[in-house]
Every structure is written in structure tokens, then in C-alpha cells.
Specification:
Elements lengths: L4 H48 L21 E5 L8 E2 L13 E7 L2 E10 L2 E8 H14 L2 H33 L19 H46 L8 H28 L9 E3 H18 L3 E7 L3 E3 L2 H18 L5 E9 L2 E8 L29 H11 L3 E6 L7 E8 L9 H27 L1
Parallel strand pairs: 7-9
Antiparallel strand pairs: 1-2, 1-5, 3-4, 4-5, 6-8, 9-10, 10-12, 11-12
The structure holds adenosine-5'-triphosphate (ATP) and magnesium ion.
Length: 471
């Protein structure tokens, strides 16, 4: 079983409460029985004294046999020298006349009796009660004292649970917050409302998060600076290669082409590194602009349309939500374009690429479906790793999806890559961003404007769709 402070506290406190309740129950039961026994003894004594003070005449001289309820006490009055009692509430019962004065317990007619004997020179008064009747009375009375505790016990246990839960709630909240801390979410844990005992703990975690954020930021800045610094000499190299082109002799053209594509690859790597560094940069402000995704999807399709057309790839957008997302247009565009560029790059000639943007709950999802080779299931969990490439036959830096992940994570969205599940080979790559405005909060005026927007988006997408498909 997992070691849980809450479980340990609940179990320990519950055992303590139950043990205290049992101890209290046993002692109150026994004390009550003893008290009841003393009361019943006192009653026997009082009745005997009253008989002695002249109340004996109230007993009928010849009571009917068996007329007395078994719970009642039996009173017998003797005159010394006489065989039969002078008065008795139950003449069939012969109490031992030689019993000790005061209280005693005797066996009579096969039953145990508690007897009070009052003896004086002229009279012997005995008042007796069955021990079984006394036991029953004592038990019933003692048991009745346990009821309040039996009712209170579950209430106290419930209160214990509630107190433990409430006391540790803040700790659970902090645990959840700490779970959400990763390289893209390095916010300090909130200290408001944290119990004083936990403050040093939360303080040291926050200092650690700060140090981590500083070192990640330093690393990011280094990558960004290095990529930036490399860009200038690479551009110069590119220019020189362009100038050299006419002077390359025919036999060296092939090798020169390789040199140029090497320069182009390095250029692409630098661009991706810069994009990654930018995507990894922390958010500077809490408010982000609202972005129309449909326009970005249309742009992404337009960008690749010439290549797609040349390769006979049928590319088009279907469903197109016009909701706005809470993320900057530049970043959303980088994420969408990376997915579209992957789809075009990895889909063989004559394939199909479908795009759609749809709102689900508070998120807007952009989905890119292709008919490429897909990705081996065992490699899927690694596609978002930096520099990971599942297919070495096609050129790439292995940074595109890391950039997509960093961008979506930064704005509270998700990036998902899975193989198609409709029987065709290919990838479904999707990114989500939170809506700029929660769906329930939309005013009718905004909704109307967006309806207009849908038609506009459809008009904008349709020509590209047809063009791509016709090509
Ligand atoms: N649509 C796709 N179909 C098949 N494989 C894909 C697809 N998208 C990505 N992959 C695989 O996932 C790997 C990682 O993709 P990612 O976009 O991160 O890098 P890349 O495309 O190689 O390089 P870059 O995008 O930086 O130019 C790719 O190398 C490729 O093997
Ligand atoms: Mg890519």
C-alpha cells in the first residue's frame, strides 16, 4: 500500500477514537451495573425497614399462589418459634431463616436470590429478589447508557475524516500544482493560504524552480544566440556559393550541388533552432491576442499548394471553425505549418491531405490527416523528442514537432500524433489551443459575427481546396 500521510492519520485517529470509545463503553457499562446493583440492594433494605416499622399489615395474610409477578420482590415475616411465616407475599418460597443479617445471596428452590435479612428479638423480616431479575435490570440499564456513544461514534469518525481532509487539502493542492511544473511551466507554487508548517518546504521548492527556470532560460538564450550568430556567416556562404555557380566546371556540378544542399540543410537547422528557442521563451504577459485560426490554415495550405500540385497531392480543408484562440498568430502559424509541412514531406506523390479546424469544449483543434506511411507504433512516443527522426530517408532536422509541442504547451494546448484508425495508412497530427472566449460566454452578437465568419472562411478555403484537388 502507498505511504499516505492522510491514510496514516485517518487510520491512527480512527483507531484511537474507537479504542477510547470501547474503553469508555466498558467502564460506563460496569459502573452502571455496579450502581444499579447498589440501588436494588438499597431498595431491599428500605422495604425491610418499612415492614419493620409497621407496614407488614399491607401484605395479605393468604396471598394467592403464583399471583406475584416474577420480577417483584418477595417479603416474608416470621415470628420466632413458628413453622410457617406470619406474612409472606409468596408462601411457596421458603427463604433460609438462618441467613446472615443484612445482604446475602442464597440458593432457594434451584434459583439464586438476593436477600436482605432484618432480625430483632420478636421478628424476622426477609426481603428477597431473584438474582436473574436483578441481572437483567442491571444489564438493560447499563446497555442503555451505551446508546449515545454508539450514535456519536460514527459522527466523531466522520468529523475526524473531515478535519484530516480539510487540513491536508492545501497539501494536495500544492502537490497538484507541483505536478504541473515542467520545463514549459516553471511557475512558482502559490504561497497564499499555505499552512506555516509547509511554508519552508514550498519556499525551497520555489527557489529550486527559480534556479531551474534561470538555467533553462540561459540554455535557451545560448541556443538562440548561437543560431543567430551562425545565420550571418551561413548567408554569406550561400551568397558566395551562388556567385561561384557559373564558374564550376561541368564535372564538379554534382559535388557542388551537394555542397549547396548541405548549406541549405544547415540553414534549415538554424531556422528551426531559432524557432525552438523562440517557442521555449517564457510568456512575458498573461494576456495573449485572439487569433483567427481559419486564416492560418488557409495560409498554410496556400504555402504548400505549388509543391502539392507538382507532386499530385490532393490537399484541402474541410470543416473550418472560425472561433478565435488565445495564442499569438505567429506561434499558431508555426505550429500548423510544421504539421502541414510534415504531411506534404512524408506523403508519397498522389496522396491526400485533409485539414480541419473544429471546436471541442474550450479548445480549438487543428487536425492534419495524410495518407503517408505512418509511424511505427513503438516510435510514436518519441516523435516530440528533439532531433528525433523516425524516417532517415527523408531530410529533416527532427525539431519540427518539438517546436509544435513547445508552442502548444506554452498556451495551454496539446499536440497529438497518431496513426490513422480508419484502415488507411497515414498520420493524424493535431494541435489544440484554448479558445479566446469560452463557448458559454459568447454573446449572440459575437456568435452572429462568427456565423458570417464561417461563410467567409468557407469561401476562402474552397478555391484552394478545389485547386489542390483539381491539380
Ligand atoms: N506526417 C508524417 N508522416 C510520417 N512520419 C512523420 C510525419 N510527421 C512526422 N513524422 C516523423 O516524425 C519525425 C519527427 O518529425 P519532426 O517534424 O519533428 O522532424 P522533421 O520533419 O524530421 O524535421 P523538421 O520538421 O524540423 O524539418 C520525422 O523525422 C518523421 O520521421
Ligand atoms: Mg517536420
Amino acid at each position: 500500500m502507498k505511504h499516505s500521510l492522510r491514510n496514516n492519520l485517518v487510520i491512527a485517529l480512527s483507531i484511537l477514537v474507537i479504542a477510547a470509545a470501547i474503553a469508555q463503553g466498558i467502564s460506563s457499562y460496569q459502573l452502571c451495573r455496579a450502581g444499579m446493583s447498589a440501588l436494588l440492594d438499597l431498595r431491599l433494605e428500605q422495604v425491610a425497614v418499612r415492614m419493620h416499622n409497621g407496614f407488614a399489615d399491607s401484605i395479605p395474610a393468604t396471598p394467592e399462589r403464583g399471583s406475584q409477578p416474577s420480577r417483584d420482590i418477595v417479603i416474608t415475616i416470621h415470628r420466632p418459634g413458628s413453622e410457617v411465616p406470619l406474612r409472606s407475599t409468596d408462601p411457596s418460597l421458603r427463604l433460609p431463616e438462618d441467613a446472615d443479617a443484612g445482604l446475602s445471596s442464597e440458593q432457594v428452590n434451584g434459583e439464586r436470590w438476593r436477600i436482605y435479612t432484618l432480625r430483632d428479638p420478636g421478628t424476622l423480616i426477609q426481603v428477597a429478589q431473584r438474582s436473574s431479575v436483578r441481572d437483567q435490570l442491571e444489564r438493560e440499564t447499563a446497555l442503555s447508557t451505551l446508546w449515545p456513544m454508539l450514535v456519536l461514534l460514527p459522527l466523531v469518525l466522520g468529523a475526524v475524516l473531515l478535519i484530516v481532509y480539510r487540513s491536508l487539502r492545501k497539501m494536495n493542492q500544492l502537490g497538484m500544482e507541483a505536478q504541473g511544473v515542467d520545463a514549459s511551466h516553471l511557475k512558482p507554487l502559490p504561497v497564499a493560504g499555505v499552512p506555516t508548517e509547509l511554508l519552508p518546504f514550498v519556499g525551497s521548492i520555489n527557489r529550486m524552480i527559480e534556479r531551474l527556470a534561470q538555467s533553462i532560460e540561459a540554455e535557451r538564450k545560448f541556443i538562440a544566440d548561437a543560431a543567430h550568430e551562425l545565420r550571418t556567416p551561413l548567408t554569406a556562404l550561400q551568397l558566395q556559393a551562388d556567385n561561384l555557380q557559373p564558374h564550376i566546371v561541368a564535372g564538379n556540378q554534382e559535388r557542388f550541388k551537394e555542397l549547396r544542399s548541405g548549406i541549405a540543410r544547415s540553414g534549415a537547422l538554424i531556422t528551426q533552432l531559432l524557432r525552438l528557442a523562440r517557442a521555449d521563451a517564457p510568456l512575458v504577459s498573461d494576456t495573449v491576442e485572439a487569433t483567427d485560426v481559419s486564416k492560418i490554415v488557409v495560409d498554410a495550405v496556400s504555402d504548400v499548394l505549388p509543391i502539392a500540385a507538382a507532386r499530385g497531392i490532393d490537399i484541402g480543408a474541410e470543416e473550418m471553425s472560425t472561433d478565435k484562440v488565445a495564442a499569438p498568430a505567429a506561434d499558431v502559424a508555426v505550429a500548423v505549418k510544421n504539421l502541414v509541412s510534415n504531411a506534404v514531406r512524408y506523403t508519397p506523390d498522389g496522396g491526400t491531405i485533409d485539414l480541419c479546424a473544429r471546436t471541442q469544449g474550450n479548445m480549438l483543434w487543428v487536425e492534419v490527416r495524410d495518407t503517408g506511411p505512418g509511424i511505427a507504433p513503438e516510435l510514436l512516443p518519441r516523435v516530440f523528442d528533439r532531433f528525433f527522426r523516425a524516417n532517415l530517408d527523408v531530410e529533416g532536422t527532427g525539431l519540427g514537432l518539438s517546436i509544435v509541442k513547445a508552442i502548444t504547451g506554452k498556451y495551454g494546448g496539446e499536440a497529438v500524433i497518431r496513426n490513422r484508425s480508419d484502415g488507411r495508412s497515414g498520420i493524424v497530427a493535431a494541435v489544440s489551443f484554448p479558445l479566446a472566449e469560452a463557448p458559454a460566454a459568447k454573446s449572440p452578437r459575437v456568435a452572429q459575427k462568427q456565423n458570417g465568419g464561417v461563410a467567409e472562411a468557407e469561401r476562402a478555403v474552397a478555391p484552394h481546396h478545389l485547386h489542390g484537388r483539381d491539380a
